[in-house]
Specification:
- The complex is a heterodimer of chains A (about 350) and B (about 350).
- Chain A contains 15 helices and four strands.
- With about 350 residues, chain A is mostly helical.
- Chain A has a domain of about 210 residues.
- Chain B is mostly helical and about 350 residues long.
- Chain B has two domains: about 45 residues; about 250 residues, ABC transporter involved in vitamin B12 uptake, BtuC (Orthogonal Bundle), CATH 1.10.3470.
- In chain B, helix 4 packs across helix 10, helix 4 packs across helix 14 and helix 6 packs antiparallel against helix 7.
- The chains are: A mainly alpha (about 350), B mainly alpha (about 350).
- The interface between A and B is large, with 42 and 48 residues.
Chain lengths: ~350, ~350
C-alpha cells in the first residue's frame, strides 16, 4: 500500500505497525477511544462497571447485524430490510415460546437463524433475478416484512424476559465478567472476519464489489456469492432478533423499526465503502460499538435525546465523505507512483 | 421500439398506421387502461367504492404522493434518486408547527409557509451540493439525509404535536368541489403536474434529462450542464416536498416529528410503477400520474375492505418490488427470444 520510499526499507515489524496505524479500523477505534475518554472526563460514571456492561450489551445486537450488513455492502448491494427482519425474527421467538414453553434454547436459536436466513434468501433471490439495485428491492421488502409483522402480531406483545428464565438470563449472565451476548457478537465478528479475510469465496465478495462485470468475466459465480451474502445477512439478523428478544423481553409489531439506518450508518462509519469492494467486518463491528457508545454518551452528557437521529445522519454523511476523500487521495497517489515507475 | 427498427423499411401507409398504434398501444395509453381497469375492478368488487366520498378521500390522500412524485420522476430519469423527500416534508412540517405555536398571535401564516419552503429548498440544496459538487452517490447521500432531516425535525419539535392551526386554512385544504367531490387543492396539484409535464417533455432542459440518464459523459459532451441540471432538480425536489409537508400539516391539522414518515416508499413505488426506469433515461409524466392513481386506488379499496393501514404496507412494498422486477425480467425474456430468432434465421438451429 505505502508508496513512499522510506518504509519500504524499514523492518517488517514497523511496516506491520504502520499498516495497522493507517488502517481505517484503527482510526474508527481511535475515535471510539477518544469519545469514551472525553465523555468519562466530563461524567465519570460513564465508565463504571455498569456503564461498560451497558455499552457491551446494547452494542452486541448491533454488532451482529452490522457484520451481516457489511458482507452485503461489500458486494456493492445493500439490505435495508434488516430492521423488519429483526422485528419478525424477534416476534417469532416470542411466538415459539408461547406455543412450546419448554422448548430448548438451541432450537429457539436455530429457528431464529433459519427464519432470518429465509427472509434474506428472498431478498437475494429477487435481487439476483431482477438485476435491479438491491436498494429498491430491499426498500420494498422492508415494508413487506413489516406489514407481515403487523398482520401477524397486531397489537399483541410477547414478554419472554423471565419466562422461561434461562432465556432471559442469557442477556444477564456473564462469562468471566464478560456478558454472554458480547461473546456471541465477538464470535460472529471473528468467524466472518476470518472468512472474508482468508476464504476464497470471502475474497470473491470484494472482487464482486469492486467490479461486478470483471468478477463475472474472471469466472466468479457472482449471483451465487451475492445470494450467499444476503442469506448470511438475514441469518445474522435472525440471530440478532433472538438476542433482542432475550435482552429487551417485550417483542411486538414495531420491534426494530428504523434500525436499518443505524446499521447502515454503523457499517459505513466502520470504513466499509457504500459502493462496495472495500472494508472489513471488524471495522463494521467497531462502527456499531461507536454508534451505540455515541448514543450512550449523548445521554450521559445530558444532550437531548432528540439529537440522536440527527447525529446518525451526520455520521453517515461524514463517513461517505471521508471514504470519498480517501479514495481520491489514493488514486492520485497511485497515479504518481505509476508515473515514477515508468 | 420494434416499430422504430422496421419503420425505415416499410412504406408510408404502414408508418402512418404505426403512429396510430403508438398512441393507442403506447406506454402512456397502457397506463391509462390500467388505471381504468383497476377502478372498474374496485367498483365491482369493493362495496361502497363507487361514490363521491371515494373520489374525495382517494384524491386527497394522493395529493402529497402526486406532488413529490413529480420531481422524483425527473430525478430518477437522470439516473439519481432522492430518498429524503419524506424527511424533508417532515422537517418542514415540524418547522411550521413550531413557528405557529410560538408566534401565531402576531405572525402571518403566509410568511411561515415561505420560511418552510426556504427550509425545503435548503434541504434540497444540501443534497444537491453533496451529489453534484462533492460527487457522492445520490443513493448514499439521501439515505444519510433521510436520517438527518428526520432527526432535525425531532430536534425542532421534540415530542410536541401542534394542532391549533387556523380553521380557514385547514378547511380550505380539505374542501371539495361540490357534486364531483374533487378536492379544491387538486387544482393546484394539477397545475404543478402540468408544469412538470411541459418542462420534461417540451423544453430543452427536460429533454436533456433523458440524455443525462442514458450517459452522463455523452450528455456533457453535447453541452448539457450535468451538475447544474441535477442541482436544480434536487432543490426543486426540496421545495415541492416542503409544500407537501405543509399540505400534510393542514390536512391533518397536526404537526409532529413523524409527519409524512415513510412516504418515500409510495413515491418511489408510484414513479417506478408509472414506467420510469430505475436506471434512468426513460419514462413520462402521464405514466407517473397513472402510477400514483393505481397505488392510491388499490390501497383505498383494501382500506374499505377492512385491512388496517399498517398491513397495507405489504401491498405498497409488493407493488414496488413487482414494478422494478417485471420490466427487467420481461426485457431478459425478450432478449433471449430475439437471440433465439436470430440463431434460427442464421440457420444455426433447425427450425422447430
Amino acid at each position: 500500500m505505502s508508496t513512499t520510499t522510506s518504509p519500504r526499507q524499514a523492518p517488517l515489524v514497523f511496516r506491520g505497525a504502520r499498516r495497522i496505524l493507517v488502517s481505517r479500523e484503527f482510526s474508527v477505534f481511535a475515535a471510539l477511544a477518544l469519545l469514551i475518554i472525553v465523555t468519562t472526563s466530563i461524567n465519570p460514571r460513564f465508565l463504571s462497571a455498569q456503564g461498560i456492561s451497558d455499552i457491551l450489551l446494547n452494542s452486541s445486537i448491533f454488532v451482529v447485524m452490522a457484520v451481516g450488513e457489511a458482507m452485503v455492502i461489500i458486494t456493492r448491494n445493500v439490505d435495508l430490510s434488516v430492521g423488519s427482519t429483526l422485528g419478525l425474527t424477534a416476534y417469532s421467538t416470542g411466538a415459539v415460546y408461547a406455543a412450546f414453553p419448554h422448548v430448548s434454547l438451541v432450537v429457539v436459536f436455530v429457528i431464529g437463524i433459519v427464519f432470518g436466513g429465509i427472509l434474506g434468501a428472498i431478498n437475494g433471490l429477487v435481487v439476483g433475478a431482477a438485476k435491479v439495485p438491491a436498494l429498491v428491492i430491499t426498500l420494498g421488502t422492508l415494508y413487506i416484512y413489516r406489514g407481515v409483522n403487523y398482520a401477524w402480531a397486531g397489537s399483541n406483545q410477547y414478554f419472554v424476559g423471565n419466562d422461561p428464565a434461562e432465556f432471559g438470563n442469557l442477556s444477564v449472565q456473564t462469562f468471566y465478567g464478560v456478558p454472554v451476548l458480547a461473546i456471541i457478537a465477538l464470535a460472529a465478528t471473528v468467524i466472518f472476519g476470518i472468512y472474508l479475510y482468508g476464504a476464497r469465496s470471502g475474497r470473491d465478495l470484494y472482487a464482486i464489489g469492486s467490479d461486478p462485470s470483471a468478477a463475472r468475466v474472471f469466472g466468479i459465480p457472482v449471483d451465487i456469492r451475492v445470494f450467499g451474502a444476503f442469506v448470511a445477512c438475514g441469518a445474522l439478523t435472525g440471530l440478532a432478533g433472538v438476542l433482542y428478544a432475550s435482552r429487551f423481553s417485550s417483542v411486538g409489531a414495531d420491534t426494530g423499526t428504523g434500525y436499518e439506518l443505524q446499521i447502515v450508518a454503523a457499517v459505513v462509519v466502520g470504513g466499509v465503502a457504500i459502493f462496495g469492494g472495500s472494508g472489513t467486518v471488524v471495522g463494521a463491528a467497531i462502527g456499531a460499538v461507536l454508534l451505540t457508545t455515541m448514543t450512550g454518551a449523548l445521554a450521559s452528557l445530558n444532550v437531548s435525546k432528540f439529537w440522536q437521529q440527527a447525529v446518525v445522519g451526520v455520521l453517515i454523511i461524514a463517513a461517505i465523505l471521508i471514504t470519498r476523500l480517501l479514495a481520491l487521495r489514493n488514486t492520485r497517489r497511485l497515479k504518481v507512483s505509476e508515473a515514477r515507475n515508468v | 421500439m420494434s416499430e422504430q427498427a422496421t419503420a425505415p423499411v416499410s412504406a408510408a401507409p404502414a408508418k402512418l398506421r404505426s403512429r396510430g398504434r403508438r398512441v393507442w398501444l403506447g406506454r402512456n395509453a397502457n397506463m391509462i387502461y390500467a388505471v381504468v381497469l383497476v377502478v372498474i375492478l374496485a367498483s365491482i368488487f369493493v362495496p361502497f367504492f363507487f361514490s363521491v366520498t371515494t373520489v374525495n378521500f382517494l384524491l386527497i390522500d394522493a395529493v402529497p404522493i402526486l406532488l413529490m412524485a413529480m420531481p422524483m420522476a425527473l430525478i430518477i430519469i437522470t439516473g439519481e434518486i432522492d430518498l429524503s423527500v419524506a424527511s424533508t416534508a417532515g422537517l418542514s412540517a415540524a418547522v411550521l408547527g413550531v413557528l405557529w405555536e410560538n408566534s401565531h398571535a402576531h405572525g402571518n401564516i403566509w410568511v411561515m409557509f415561505v420560511i418552510c419552503v426556504i427550509v425545503g429548498a435548503a434541504c434540497g440544496a444540501f443534497n444537491g451540493f453533496l451529489i453534484t459538487v462533492v460527487g457522492l452517490p445520490s443513493l448514499a447521500v439521501t439515505i444519510g439525509t433521510l436520517a438527518l432531516f428526520r432527526g432535525l425535525a425531532l430536534v425542532v419539535i421534540g415530542d410536541d404535536a401542534v394542532a391549533d392551526f387556523p380553521t380557514d386554512a385547514t378547511t380550505f385544504v380539505t374542501s371539495t368541489v361540490p357534486v364531483i367531490g374533487v378536492p379544491v387543492f387538486m387544482v393546484f396539484v394539477l397545475v404543478v403536474v402540468a408544469i412538470f409535464a411541459v418542462v420534461l417533455h417540451f423544453t430543452p432542459f427536460g429533454r436533456a434529462l433523458y440524455a443525462l440518464g442514458f450517459s452522463k459523459e455523452a450528455a456533457s459532451f453535447v453541452g448539457i450542464r450535468v451538475g447544474r441540471s441535477k442541482f436544480t432538480l434536487f432543490v426543486i425536489s426540496g421545495v415541492i416536498s416542503s409544500i407537501a409537508g405543509i399540505f400534510w400539516v393542514l390536512r391533518y391539522s397536526s404537526a409532529q416529528s413523524d409527519s409524512v414518515q415513510g412516504l418515500e416508499l409510495s413515491v418511489v413505488a408510484a414513479v417506478v410503477l408509472g414506467g420510469v426506469s430505475i436506471f434512468g433515461g426513460s419514462g413520462g409524466i402521464v405514466g407517473v400520474v397513472g402510477g400514483v392513481l393505481i397505488i392510491r386506488t388499490v390501497n383505498y379499496s383494501l382500506e374499505l375492505g377492512g385491512l388496517p393501514d399498517t398491513v397495507l404496507t405489504i401491498v405498497t412494498g409488493g407493488l414496488l418490488v413487482i414494478s422494478v422486477v417485471a420490466p427487467s425480467v420481461s426485457a431478459r425474456i425478450r432478449l433471449a427470444r430475439d437471440r433465439r430468432r436470430a440463431l434460427v434465421h442464421s440457420g444455426e438451429i433447425a427450425k422447430p
